[in-house]
Amino acid sequence: MKTSELMTREPRAVRGLDRLDAAARVLWDQDCGIVPVVDAAGVLVGVLTDRDLCMAVYTQGRLLTDIPVSAVMARVVRSCRPDDAITTVLQTMTQAQVHRLPVVDGKGVLVGIVSITDLVRAANSRPTAVDVGGVVKTLAAIAAPRRAVAPATRPAASSAVAAVSSPASSAMALAAAPTGRSGKPVAKKAKGKKG
Fold this sequence. Notes:
Elements: E1 8-9, E2 14-15, H1 20-30, E3 34-38, E4 44-49, H2 50-60, H3 86-96, E5 100-104, E6 110-115, H4 116-125, H5 132-143, H6 159-162, H7 168-176
Parallel strand pairs: 2-3
Antiparallel strand pairs: 1-6, 3-4, 5-6
Helix pairs in contact: 3-5, 4-5
C-alpha cells in the first residue's frame, strides 16, 4: 500500500507571515492537530501543531493575533512522498516520534498529510494491506517519553498583574487567579472568612 492511498489530499495550510489566529482557525475548521506552513509556491517550509500554538501564547504572554507563524513553526520537518510505502511512513514516524507527516511531491510542494490515525484505520479495515504489528510498534514509539527537558518559565506577568503594587506573593497569587469576561482577575474569597 502507498501513502497516496491513505493521505488527506490538499490539506489547508498557512504562510509564515500569517498570524497564529489564522493557524488556530485552520486547526478548528479542519478538526486537526497540525497545520503545514508553505511558501508562495506551496513548498513546505514548516509545520505548526496545536501544542506549538498553545505554548507560544503561554510562554510569550501575547495574543494569537500578535505572533507570526514563522516565529513558532518547526522548520525541521520530516515528510514523505505519495509513492512511499506505508512501512517507510511507519519508520519515519517511529524515528521522529510524530503523529503526522506532511506529504510532498518531488519539488517539495505540499500535496497531503498522513497521520497515525489514518494508519490505524487502515490496519483495522484492511489488516492484510497494513502491518498491524508495525502500526502498534509505531504507536508505542510515538508514545514513549522523550528525554527530559527543563520546564520553560512563564514570562513576566500580564499588565493587569504588573500594575498591582503589592508584595510579590500577592502578585503571584493574582497571576494565578481566574479571570472574568473582561479579562481582569477575579478576586477569590479566602477559606474560612465571611464576607
